[in-house]
C-alpha cells in the first residue's frame, strides 16, 4: 500500500518466496499491478481502492484479520502521477488542475480546480497553511480570490504557479539538495493532500495495519513530509486518542496530575515496538542517484500485542 509503479513489489517478489496483496487507488497503477500478477502467476492479488476501502476488498477475497505477515506503506504521490502533466500534479508540466489520485473513479470527488473556484479565502488559507506549511499562505489565498473575482477562475497548473510567483517576488527557494525549487511546491502539496483526503487515509491505514497484521508481523512506512511522518510516529508510540493520532506530541503536559504508574502505562500502551530507534533517511549516494528520494523517511515496527 500503495502499489505505485510497482518497484517495491517487484523487489519483494524477487527477493522472497511470498504472496503479495497490492493496493492502489489509481486505475493506472491497478493496470500495472495486473501486468505484474501475470508475470508472477498466483503470487500477486491486485486491489483497486483507497486505504479506507481495504476491509471490504479483503472481505471479498476471504482474507481475515490478523493473517498478514507484513505491510509496506509508501505514502504520497507516485512518480507516474507526477510525470503525467494531464493529471495536474506536476508544477513543471502544464495541465488542468485535477490532482485526483483516483483519476475520475469517483465522479463525486472534488478536483483541485473546483477547490480553488469555490473555497473562500479563510478556507484556502487553512489548506495552504496546515497541509502545505506555506509561510505566504494568507497572501496566496487573498490573491487567488482577487483573481477569481477580477479575472477568471484558476484552471491550469501554469496559472497557479504564476499566481504563487506573483505573491513571492524576488524570492528564491532551494530544496534539500540546494537546487532551485518552485515557490508553488508547498501549495501544490497542500491541494493534493486536501483533494485526496490523504492524512485521514494514512491514519486509517495505520489503524488497519494493527488489525490485519499477525502477532510479530512487520510494519514498514515510507513518508515524504513531516505531516505524514508525525501520524506514523504517534501511532507507533501509542500516542492516539480514539484511534486518531494525537495532535499534541505528549498526552499529559503536567506530571503533577498523574502520579500512579498504571495510568501512565495505560496512556503509553502501544501495540507496536519500533525496530529502528531513529527514523532512517537515504544516504547521499542514493539521493544523487534518485533525487526524489531526498525527503523520504522510513520507519519500521513489530506488532507485539
From TrEMBL:
GO annotation (BP), single: rRNA base methylation
Pfam families, per database record: Methyltransf_5
A Gene Ontology molecular function term of the record: rRNA (cytosine-N4-)-methyltransferase activity
Transferase listed as a keyword: yes
Protein's UniProt keywords contain Cell wall biogenesis/degradation: no
Keywords from the UniProt entry: Methyltransferase, S-adenosyl-L-methionine, Transferase
Spans traversing the lipid bilayer: none
Family: Belongs to the methyltransferase superfamily. RsmH family.
NCBIfam families assigned to the protein according to its UniProt record, in alphabetical order: 16S rRNA (cytosine(1402)-N(4))-methyltransferase RsmH (TIGR00006)
Protein name: Putative methyltransferase-like protein 15-like
Source species: Papilio xuthus
